C-alpha cells in the first residue's frame, strides 16, 4: 500500500537558473496542519509553486510525492486532479470569466461526477455564507478588481468547494482584517469537520502566529535560504513572533541546527 | 428546413465585374416586372466607372497585412434579383445553417419583423411576423416605389461611391437590400431582423440597406449573414438617426468559410441621438468592414462594440471612424479581436474631433489576442483632435494568453485546452457584454466557442 501524505524529499528547485530550494524535506500527513514560516525571500512561495507545477520553477533534484506517487513533471491541472490545492499569495485575475463559471468548471474537472447543478448551487451558497461573502460576487469576473481581502476569501471559497487532499495556503492571512481572518478560519475548520475535508493535510505558509489561533498547527517549520532549518511545535511560531529570525540565523550559521 | 427549398426561380447572370455584365444585369432588371433593383441605370453606370477608376485598398496601413484586394476573384458567381413566395420563413432566422435548425438551440432571437434573403432573392412568406403598423420594413426596390421621396433623400447620402471603391461596386450591381423606417416617437421593443443567407449556389450579393429613425424613435436592427457556400457579399448600410432617437445596429457575419464579405456602414446622428454599433465578424474567408459614425448634432452619442475572431486562413479588415462634428458629443469604441491558426486581422481605429466640437469625449480601447504563432493582428489607432477642451482616451494591447492566468486556472484542475478556451472567451466579454440582448450575447458566445473548437480540431 502506498504511503499517504504529501512528501517533499531533498527537493531542489531553480527560478531563472538560480537555485532557490536547496534540499527540502517535509512530510504533510493527511488531516494534519503544518505551518511554514521564514523571512521574505527564503523560498516559501517557490516551494508552493514547485509543488503546484508552475512552469517557471524547475525542479533540479529530489521529489514531491502525493500519496506515494511522484508528481514528477505532471501538468498543474493533473496535480489538482490528484488532490493538490494552492491558495495563491497573489491570485491572478481572469477578466471575462465569472466566478461561478470558473468554480463550476474547476469542480467538474476535479470531481467529475460529483455534483448536480442544484447541489453545486446549494454547496456554494453555504460556503459563501461561512466566508461572509456576498453572492453577487459569483457573477463578477475572477479576481478582477477584487480587493486584497476579497481575493483571499475567493481562494478559500475555492478551497472549500474543491476539498482537496492537500492544501498549501501561501500567506492567505496576509492583508486580512480581523473579521476576514476569522471567516477564513471558520471556512477551513468547517471543511476539516466535513467528510470531504476531514483528511485534508495543510501546509500553511505565514508570517504571523495569529492565523494559527484559528487553525491549530500540529507542526511548525522554519525556512531560511531555501532550507528548513528548524521544526517544532506550535510554540515555535510564538518564539519567532517575539524574537524574529536572528537567533535562528545565528544558530544556522554556527551549524548548530 | 433544407436550403434546396429556396432554389432560385429567376433568371440569373454569371457575374463578373466588367461592363458587359453590368449591361446584362441592367437589362435583366428592366425586363422583370417585380423589379429587384433600386438604383437607376445611369447611377449604376456612374458608380461602375468609379469602381474601375478607384484603386483597390492597399496594404498601406499595417505592414504585415497579406491580403491583396486587387486579386479578389469574383467571376463565376451567380447574380440574380427578385423575390420568391414561400409558405413560411425558416424557423430560426438566426441559425447558422439553413438546414441545421436542431443543433442551433441558442441561435434564435425574438423578431418584430424583417426580411429574409437567400442569395439576393427575398423570401415572401404568406404570413409575415406581426409588425407594428407604423413601422416600414421593405425590400429597397419596393420602398423606392412606395416611399420614393424618403428613399431618394437618404440612399447614397452617407456612403460616397465616388470615393469608396467597394461602395461603387455595390451600387453598380445592387440586387437586394432593405428600407427600414421607424417614425418619430415610435419605440420598438423587439428587434427588426434582416437575414442574408447564402444559397446552395455561390452568389454575388449586393445589398444596400437604409435605416431611418425619426426624432425620439427607438429600434434595434439585426443584420445577419449566414450560410455555407462561397459567395461574395458587397454592400452598404446607411443609418439616419433623428434627434434624441436611439438605434442599436447589430451586424453578425457568419458567412461561409470561403465567402468574401465587404460591407461599408455609416450612421449620421442628430442632436442627442444615440447610435450603438454591435459588430461580430465570425465567418467568411475575407471580411472587410468599415463603420463610420458622424455625430452631427449637439450632444449625440456613439458606442461601437466590435469583435472578430479569425481562424484557419481568415482575414478580417476592420476600420471604425467616429467623427465628432458638434459639441458635447461622446463616443466609446471597444474592439476585441483574436486570431488563431493563420488568421490575420487588421484594425484601424479613427477618432476625429473637429475644432468646434467643444466638450466632446471620445474613448477607443482595442485589444488583440493571438492564439497561435502564425496568427497576426495589426492595430492602428489614429486620433485627430482639433479642439482642446475635449477628453480623448486611447489604449491598445496585442498579446497572447497570459501565463499566470493559465497557470491559475490549471492549478484548479482545469486542463490547458479548456483553460485557454475559457480565458479566450473571457477576453471577448467586454465587447460581447454590450450586445443588446441576452439571446444575442449567448449566440455570439456560442459562435466564438464553436470557432475555438474548430481551431482545436485543426491543431
Ligand atoms: N520569477 C522569479 N524571477 C527571479 N527571481 C525569483 C522569481 N521568483 C522568485 N524569485 C526569487 O526567489 C527567492 C525566493 O522567493 P519566494 O517568493 O519563494 O520567497 P518567499 O519566501 O515566498 O518570500 P515572501 O515571504 O516575501 O513571500 C527570492 O529571492 C525571489 O526574488
Ligand atoms: Mg511568498
List the helices and strands and how they pair.
The complex is a heterodimer of chains A (about 260) and B (about 450).
Chain A lengths: L5 E10 L2 E11 L4 E5 L6 H9 L4 E10 L2 E2 L5 H7 L1 E4 L6 E5 H12 L6 H14 L10 E2 L5 H15 L3 E5 L7 H16 L7 E5 L5 H4 L4 E6 L2 E6 L2 H9 L2 H8 L4
Parallel strand pairs in A: 3-10, 3-11, 6-9, 9-10
Antiparallel strand pairs in A: 1-2, 1-4, 4-5, 7-8, 11-12
Helix pairs in contact in A: 5-6
Chain B lengths: L12 E2 L4 H13 L9 H13 L24 E2 L2 E5 L27 E5 L2 E5 L10 E4 H7 L1 H7 L10 H8 L3 E7 L9 E6 L6 E2 L1 E7 L4 E9 L5 E10 L4 E9 L5 E10 L4 E8 L4 E10 L5 E10 L4 E10 L5 E10 L4 E10 L7 E10 L5 E10 L5 E9 L3 H8 L5 H17 L5 H21 L1
Parallel strand pairs in B: 3-5, 4-8, 7-10, 8-11, 9-12, 10-12, 11-13, 12-14, 13-15, 14-16, 15-17, 16-18, 17-19, 18-20, 19-21, 20-22, 21-23
Antiparallel strand pairs in B: 1-2, 4-5, 6-7
Bound molecules: adenosine-5'-triphosphate and magnesium ion.
The site of adenosine-5'-triphosphate (ATP) has 13 residues of chain A, from helix 1.
Summarize the structure.
The complex is a heterodimer of chains A (257) and B (459). Chain A has 257 residues and is an alpha/beta fold.
What do the pLDDT scores of chain A average to? 94
Helix content bin of chain B: 10-25%
The chain pair forming the largest interface, with residue counts per chain, is: A-B, 30 and 24 residues
In angstroms, what is the radius of gyration of chain B?
21 Å
Number-wise, the strands of chain A total: 12
Global geometry of chain B: globular
Spatial gap, N to C terminus of chain B: 33 Å
The largest pleated sheet of chain B is described as: 11 strands, mixed
Supply the helix-strand structural class of chain A: alpha/beta
Low-confidence stretches of chain B: 1-9, 92-109
Amino acid at each position: 500500500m502506498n504511503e499517504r501524505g504529501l512528501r517533499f524529499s531533498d527537493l531542489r528547485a531553480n527560478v531563472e537558473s538560480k537555485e532557490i530550494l536547496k534540499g527540502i524535506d517535509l512530510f504533510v500527513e493527511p488531516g494534519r496542519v503544518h505551518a511554514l514560516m521564514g523571512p521574505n525571500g527564503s523560498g516559501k512561495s517557490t516551494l508552493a509553486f514547485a509543488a503546484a507545477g508552475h512552469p517557471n520553477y524547475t525542479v533540479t533534484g529530489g521529489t514531491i510525492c502525493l500519496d506515494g506517487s511522484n508528481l514528477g513533471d505532471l501538468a498543474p491541472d493533473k496535480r489538482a486532479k490528484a488532490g493538490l490545492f494552492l491558495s495563491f499569495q497573489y491570485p491572478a485575475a481572469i477578466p471575462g470569466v465569472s466566478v461561478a463559471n470558473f468554480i463550476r468548471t474547476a469542480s467538474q474537472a476535479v470531481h467529475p461526477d460529483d455534483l448536480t447543478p442544484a447541489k453545486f448551487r446549494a454547496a456554494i451558497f453555504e460556503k459563501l455564507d461561512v466566508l461572509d461573502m456576498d453572492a453577487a460576487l459569483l457573477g463578477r469576473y475572477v479576481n478582477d478588481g477584487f480587493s486584497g481581502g476579497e481575493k483571499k476569501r475567493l481562494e478559500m471559497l475555492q478551497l472549500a468547494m474543491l476539498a482537496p487532499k492537500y492544501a498549501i495556503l501561501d500567506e492567505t492571512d496576509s492583508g486580512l482584517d480581523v473579521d476576514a481572518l476569522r471567516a477564513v478560519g471558520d471556512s477551513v475548520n468547517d471543511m476539516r469537520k466535513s467528510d470531504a475535508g476531514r483528511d485534508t493535510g495543510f501546509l500553511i505558509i505565514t508570517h504571523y502566529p495569529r492565523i494559527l489561533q484559528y487553525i491549530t498547527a500540529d507542526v511548525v517549520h522554519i525556512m531560511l535560504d531555501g532550507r528548513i532549518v528548524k521544526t517544532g511545535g506550535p510554540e515555535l511560531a510564538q518564539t519567532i513572533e517575539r524574537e524574529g529570525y536572528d537567533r535562528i540565523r545565528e544558530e544556522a550559521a554556527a551549524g548548530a541546527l | 428546413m433544407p436550403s434546396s427549398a429556396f432554389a432560385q426561380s429567376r433568371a440569373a447572370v454569371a457575374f463578373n465585374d466588367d461592363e458587359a455584365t453590368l449591361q446584362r444585369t441592367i437589362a435583366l432588371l428592366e425586363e422583370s416586372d417585380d423589379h429587384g433593383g433600386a438604383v437607376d441605370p445611369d447611377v449604376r453606370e456612374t458608380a461602375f466607372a468609379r469602381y474601375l477608376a478607384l484603386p483597390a485598398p492597399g496594404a498601406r496601413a499595417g505592414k504585415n497585412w497579406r491580403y491583396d484586394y486587387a486579386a479578389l476573384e469574383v467571376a463565376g458567381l451567380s447574380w440574380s434579383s427578385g423575390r420568391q413566395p414561400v409558405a413560411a420563413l425558416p424557423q430560426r432566422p438566426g441559425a447558422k445553417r439553413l438546414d441545421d435548425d436542431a443543433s442551433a438551440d441558442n441561435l434564435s432571437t425574438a423578431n418584430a419583423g424583417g426580411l429574409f434573403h437567400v442569395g439576393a432573392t427575398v423570401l415572401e412568406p404568406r404570413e409575415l411576423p406581426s409588425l407594428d403598423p407604423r413601422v416600414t420594413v421593405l425590400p429597397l426596390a419596393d420602398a423606392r416605389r412606395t416611399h420614393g421621396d424618403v428613399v431618394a433623400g437618404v440612399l447614397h447620402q452617407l456612403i460616397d461611391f465616388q470615393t469608396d471603391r467597394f461602395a461603387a461596386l455595390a451600387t453598380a450591381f445592387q440586387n437586394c437590400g432593405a428600407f427600414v423606417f421607424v417614425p418619430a416617437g415610435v419605440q420598438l421593443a423587439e428587434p427588426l431582423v434582416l437575414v442574408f443567407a447564402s444559397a446552395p449556389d455561390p452568389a454575388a450579393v449586393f445589398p444596400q440597406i437604409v435605416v431611418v429613425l425619426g426624432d425620439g424613435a427607438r429600434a434595434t436592427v439585426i443584420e445577419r449573414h449566414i450560410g455555407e457556400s462561397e459567395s461574395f457579399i458587397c454592400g452598404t448600410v446607411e443609418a439616419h438617426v433623428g434627434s434624441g432617437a436611439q438605434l442599436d445596429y447589430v451586424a453578425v457575419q457568419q458567412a461561409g468559410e470561403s465567402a468574401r464579405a465587404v460591407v461599408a456602414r455609416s450612421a449620421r446622428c442628430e442632436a442627442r441621438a444615440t447610435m450603438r454599433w454591435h459588430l461580430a465578424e465570425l465567418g467568411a474567408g475575407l471580411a472587410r468592414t468599415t463603420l463610420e459614425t458622424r455625430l452631427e448634432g449637439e450632444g449625440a452619442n456613439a458606442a461601437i462594440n466590435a469583435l472578430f475572431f479569425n481562424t484557419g486562413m481568415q482575414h478580417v479588415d476592420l476600420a471604425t471612424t467616429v467623427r465628432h462634428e458638434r459639441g458635447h458629443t461622446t463616443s466609446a469604441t471597444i474592439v476585441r479581436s483574436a486570431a488563431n491558426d493563420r488568421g490575420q486581422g487588421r484594425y484601424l481605429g479613427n477618432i476625429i474631433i473637429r475644432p468646434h466640437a467643444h466638450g466632446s469625449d471620445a474613448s477607443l480601447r482595442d485589444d488583440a489576442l493571438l492564439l497561435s504563432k502564425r496568427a497576426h493582428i495589426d492595430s492602428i489607432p489614429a486620433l485627430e483632435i482639433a479642439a482642446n477642451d475635449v477628453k480623448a482616451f486611447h489604449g491598445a494591447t496585442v498579446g497572447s494568453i497570459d501565463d499566470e492566468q493559465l497557470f491559475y486556472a490549471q492549478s484548479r484542475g482545469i486542463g490547458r485546452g479548456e483553460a485557454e478556451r475559457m480565458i479566450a472567451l473571457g477576453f471577448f466579454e467586454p465587447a460581447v457584454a454590450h450586445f443588446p440582448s441576452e439571446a444575442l450575447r449567448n449566440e455570439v458566445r456560442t459562435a466564438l466557442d464553436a470557432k475555438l473548437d474548430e481551431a482545436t480540431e485543426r491543431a
